[in-house]
Design goal:
Layout lengths: L1 H4 L3 H28 L15 H68 L17 H33 L1 H16 L5 H32 L6 E4 H11 L1 H6 L3 E3 L7 E4 L1 H17 L6 E8 L3 E8 L6 H5 L22 H11 L3 E6 L5 E8 L3 H10 L8
Parallel strand pairs: 2-4
Antiparallel strand pairs: 1-3, 4-5, 5-7, 6-7
Length: about 400
């Protein structure tokens, strides 16, 4: 009973309406059957009681008539019982049908509200349900959802405004500090301590600048709108990222292999997708051991474009790996982070993948190391090759 009652609201309403109809019909048939079973006694017409022989014959005739009436009454009761059972079965079917129809009519406004709410996303929060009709519980629910959407729209607008303002306001003091360092070092015969201090400050400024870029990119992926969706090849982005980092790979004597196919096309922001691939490759290089290996591959599995980056190394805990998509989360021995690491790499990857409607999977390899898999919706081959001719490699936002 609990399993039957734990279905959808439509099923519960159907069962409730059907039970109500069936119960009332059962009571009505029972009352009809009981009332039809009331016996009406009377004297059957016969010969007048003028003598004993005639009286005995009349009494025998009365008994015969009563027996015949009793047989007819029993047959009628049997027929009424069979007819009532048939009517009850028919009424059960009609009760389910009527219950389903009534449940559909009652829940129809809720289904319309659900469908309209699903169509509203971060990119069209300006839309409203705007349900018309009498002021009832359904309209109050729709108005409440519209109020929530209005507050969400205001919050998203504030977030996007913050991203734009922070991009300008935070870079200005950094540029001022850099200029002051350049002026101090450019003086004739600067002190050795000044030059050393300037070098250390430039290193820290580079880290702050890198961290700021990560914050802004993370905010854009989470709260921004993707207005520059074009076909992008994940294979091409992977080859570019590996080529740009060839010196880092050589410095750690890493071995890179895998199959980077050109048919892994997706549709999205070239700048964000490029940063996503770069962060995956950077993570594989930075958190790798000397003389280790990297396996990177792209493919098209029929449902989407897939990028896989694997690395070797020590055996990792899957629970810690699952938290790497959160900002500043690192593995146990890397809490302080290596030089140049902001702790935002995989969280930016997760935000970009989510913004493109994809799926990110982090798997601790049983033999050691990490496997990062990104699956994104695919673009058609014609879209991909056409986009390749129009899209340049220099997006200017890496």
């Amino acid at each position: 009973m609990d399993t039957l009652w734990s279905g959808t609201v439509g099923r519960r309403f159907t069962i409730l309406y059907a039970a109500g109809f069936l119960g009332s019909g059962t009571v009505l048939l029972a009352l009809t059957y009981l009332m039809s079973g009331t016996r009406v006694s009377g004297v059957a017409p016969g010969q007048p009681r003028t003598g004993r022989p005639g009286l005995a014959a009349a009494e025998q005739q009365i008994r015969d008539l009563e027996r015949q009436l009793s047989d007819v009454h029993a047959q009628q009761n049997h027929q009424l019982l069979v007819g009532s059972l048939i009517a009850l079965v028919v009424m059960a079917g009609l009760s389910l049908l009527l219950g389903r129809i009534l449940a559909g009519r009652v829940l129809r406004p809720l289904r319309l509200i659900t469908a309209a709410t699903r169509r509203i996303s971060a990119e069209n929060l300006h839309q409203r349900l705007a349900v018309a009709g009498p002021v009832d519980e359904v309209k109050e629910l729709a108005d409440t959802v519209d109020g929530l959407l209005e507050r969400l729209e205001a919050s998203f607008v504030a977030q996007r405004r913050f991203v734009g303002n922070a991009s300008h306001e935070l870079r200005t003091p950094l540029a001022t500090i850099r200029a002051s360092l350049d002026v101090a070092v450019a003086k004739p015969e600067p002190a050795a301590q000044t030059v050393a201090l300037a070098g250390r400050l430039r290193t820290e400024l580079d880290r702050v600048d890198h961290l700021l870029d990560g914050f802004l990119l993370l905010a854009r992926a989470q709260y921004g709108t993707l207005t520059d969706r074009t076909p992008v090849s994940l294979g091409e982005l992977a080859r570019e990222a590996l080529a740009d980092r060839s010196s880092d790979i050589a410095a750690k004597t890493l071995t890179v292999d895998g199959e980077v196919r050109p048919d892994a096309w997706t549709r999205g922001s070239p700048a964000l997708l490029s940063r996503m691939v770069e962060n995956m490759v950077d993570n594989a290089i930075t958190h790798n051991q000397d003389s280790g290996w990297i396996r990177i591959s792209t493919a098209h599995d029929g449902t989407g474009a897939v990028l896989v980056v694997e690395t070797g190394g020590r055996v990792l805990d899957q629970g810690e790996v699952d938290r790497l998509t959160q900002p500043f989360e690192r593995l146990g021995t890397d809490r302080t982070g290596p030089e140049g690491s902001s702790g935002l790499g995989l969280s930016i990857v997760a935000a970009i993948v989510a913004a493109h409607g994809g799926r990110l999977t982090l798997l601790a390899r049983p033999e050691g190391g990490l496997c990062v898999t990104v699956a994104l919706p695919s673009a058609t081959a014609s879209e991909g090759w056409h986009g390749a001719g129009e899209r340049g490699h220099g997006d200017g936002e890496r």
